Amino acid sequence: MEKGNSIYQGKAKELYLTDQPEVLWVEYLDQATALNGVKKDKVVGKGQMNNQITSKIFEILADQGIESHFIEKISNTEQLIKAVGIVPLEVVVRNFAAGSFSKRLNVEEGVKLPFPIVEFYYKDDALDDPFINDMHVKVLDIASDEEVKEIKELALKVNEELKKLFASVNIKLIDFKIEVGRDAQGNILLADEISPDTCRLWDMDTNDHLDKDIYRRDLGDLIPVYEEVLNRLNTL
Ligand code: TMP
């Protein structure tokens, strides 16, 4: 497989073409951002942590019957993925109140929700990724009713598997964000990454943060925390 030109530089990943049109090459970068890129720092070692964690999680999800764009990890910081057209939604699932949910609705962080909820945010940096509902998704022609139903079902299924997976390494899954894409046949496929950048993970015994809130809230050094998550996942 040959690495081609860079086609996209995101906040924490860079995407390259390959000699196969249906395959892309991703490099995870040593970069941390928060507040839609307003806070930004180089964090040496973060790229390889997130690549390894995401690869491990996508492999486990595939074993449980949830396919994603992930093909294979090719180095500590790189993976090959299936090319998909990303649906411009950040799909958030919440099991416990935290973050923007707690702020917006004045519910204390850590309160268990009676059932998991799915939220949509419109992926648009210029608009600061606004919170939207199913009707906005339809009116903006982001996805059809059928796709919205499918995306919600997928998000909840991923939640069930991730909850089990993290519980087995003594971690509580507070909330997380996924992205989905459409493959060449138009099928909805789990995409992007699943890592401590995109999940809130609390230690089950201490409620210590094992995720990017360490960086967002200036709680300390991010690398030992991500390393802890990777080490726990590597015991599986
Ligand atoms: P929030 O509480 O800030 O809305 O975040 C909910 C979850 O989604 C949390 O685990 C972090 C994740 N997330 C991202 O991965 N990217 C984003 O841009 C946002 C807003 C949230």
Automatic annotation (TrEMBL):
Q: In which pathway does it act?
A: Purine metabolism; IMP biosynthesis via de novo pathway; 5-amino-1-(5-phospho-D-ribosyl)imidazole-4-carboxamide from 5-amino-1-(5-phospho-D-ribosyl)imidazole-4-carboxylate: step 1/2
Limits of the SAICAR synthetase/ADE2 N-terminal domain: 7-232
| UniProt-recorded Gene Ontology molecular function terms | ATP binding; phosphoribosylaminoimidazolesuccinocarboxamide synthase activity
Print the keywords alphabetically.
ATP-binding, Ligase, Nucleotide-binding, Purine biosynthesis
Broad EC category: ligase
Q: Which Gene3D superfamilies match?
A: ATP-grasp fold, B domain, Phosphorylase Kinase, domain 1
Quote the EC number: 6.3.2.6
Q: Please indicate if the UniProt record lists Nucleotide-binding as a keyword.
A: yes
Q: Which InterPro entries match?
A: SAICAR_synt/ADE2_N (IPR028923), SAICAR_synt_PurC (IPR033934), SAICAR_synth (IPR001636), SAICAR_synthetase (IPR050089), SAICAR_synthetase_CS (IPR018236)
Reaction(s) the record says it catalyses: 5-amino-1-(5-phospho-D-ribosyl)imidazole-4-carboxylate + L-aspartate + ATP = (2S)-2-[5-amino-1-(5-phospho-beta-D-ribosyl)imidazole-4-carboxamido]succinate + ADP + phosphate + 2 H(+)
* BP terms from Gene Ontology: 'de novo' IMP biosynthetic process; cobalamin biosynthetic process
Q: Which family does it belong to?
A: Belongs to the SAICAR synthetase family.
Its name, as the record gives it, is Phosphoribosylaminoimidazole-succinocarboxamide synthase
- What is the species of this protein? Floricoccus tropicus
UniProt lists the gene as purC
